[in-house]
Write a structure and sequence with these properties.
The protein contains 2 helices and 32 strands. The chain is mainly β. It has a 5-stranded mixed β-sheet with strand order 1-8-7-3-4, with no helix packed on it. Strands 9-16-15-11-12 form a 5-stranded mixed β-sheet, with no helix packed on it. Strands 17-24-23-19-20 form a 5-stranded mixed β-sheet, with no helix packed on it. A hairpin with a 5-residue loop joins strand 31 and strand 32. The longest helix has 41 residues. The chain starts with a helix and ends in a 44-residue tail after the last helix.
Amino acid sequence: MMKCLYLLYVVFHVSAGCDLSVQTKYVYIGHPGGSVLLPCSCSDLHTKPHTFTWMAYIRGGLKDMLNDEHYRGRLQLFNHISPGNLSLLISDLRLEDDVDYRCKTEKEHRDMRIYVKGCYLSAQTKYEYNGHPGGSVLLPCSCSDLHTKPHTFTWMAYIRGGLNDMLNDEHYRGRLQLFNHISPGNLSLLISDLRLEDDVDYRCRTEKDHRDMRIYVKGCDLSAQTKYEYIGHPGGSVLLPCSCSDLHTKPHTFTWMAYRTGRLKDMLNDEHYRGRLQLFNHISPGNLSLLISDLREEDAVDYRCITEKEHRDMSINVKGCDLSGDKHQVVINGHPGGSVLLPCSCSDLHTNPQTFTWTTDRTGHWTDVLNDEHYRDRLQLFNHISPGNLSLLISDLREEDQRVYWCSTGLTEYRDIRINVKGRRETSTRSGKTDRRPPSEQPPSKTTNSPPASSSTTLEQDKQQPHSSLLLVFCILLVLLLLIPGVVAFICWICRGGRCGEKVNTEGCLDYKGQQDDQIVCDDTLFTTVIYTSYSTGPH
């Protein structure tokens, strides 16, 4: 009995066929490259329609799309899972898929429509974009719906006299970047390592729309020059300023040139400047300033900061050591064993002279004082404290240090200084003390052969020296004249005391008249003539 009822149900079910479900909506939205599901099913999903198909209104009429070449590989059914599910999934949508569709069985059908929303480009915010050589610029372009994938799109540039596909152009190789692999509707283009020739018109283009824009590549416009000449000193440094008006601008090319060998030469690769140059464009791309260190006198030339668009000229004046004061000879007095400072300095004490020396004529020709063995351990300089102070301190003065010394920084820059070494100072009579040092420690006596000096002061001192000597001789003679009468009186007193009667050797002695008969005392210790009264008693 149950078997009979089941057979009747099957026969009735088959005879009833597939009654399509009520349609919920008619229009379905898709995007190029995307997918859309067209729903269609029997009211009873277990019902299998005797026949069914999908049709599309293409090429002017309804065509069976399940066997159409246009949809090959892009359609998927689900009735093998559920016999009453007749839905159709269309993948890789194209703009031409924007048509009417029909799900049809042997009894009825359902109509629907797919709208394939292509890439409608977003409204343009601006047309012009600024870039700098070596920099980057982003050209924005996107679909209104970022999930939309345009069927075709490209970027074009107005180069070589017309719009050309730049995505495949050798000029842009390795400098372009797209973002549509992240978001299919983002068609923006990033151009890197900008060049001046990238200053052209561009177009973002899809199959339905396009957007035009322009890049202005702003090269390095050099800032206005504040001054032309810059002052430096030998051994010092000088900064030659040069920069783009916009410090973020990176010039396409730039260099520094120097007019050093009769013509302008690239100094950044010149052996003369090796290890003495420093740039700052690695910190700020538009700062092209140049620092030159360890200046030399031959660096006093013209310089040029040059970019691909313009240049700035300037000059360095290397001020050597101009010695202060005039060239008249200076006389400095010192004493044996003492010290004396020979002054010599540059007008600007911050100036470091390239070369300088102290010389003197000590051995018949000019010798370098600083390297002379005679002055070993007796000299001191001060240029390590102040580079322009060339003064020389001579200690433990000796008589032979009395001479002329030259401080020189070149053939024309010199100062003439004379040292007069005076004898030791006389001990004060009020102190009642005398110098009891042994002869080896006594200071040397004052020389009488002072070398001539060129100044009036030296001449006056040389004139006073003979007067002092004559005065000393006169004093000595006066003392001797006062002593002689006393000595004579003393001798006479001794003779009257009885010593004259003694026998003495009178041979060879003469009296005051030249006669040998007079008795004359000739003592070994005192050579004094004593006159006695002569008696006339006849010949002896």
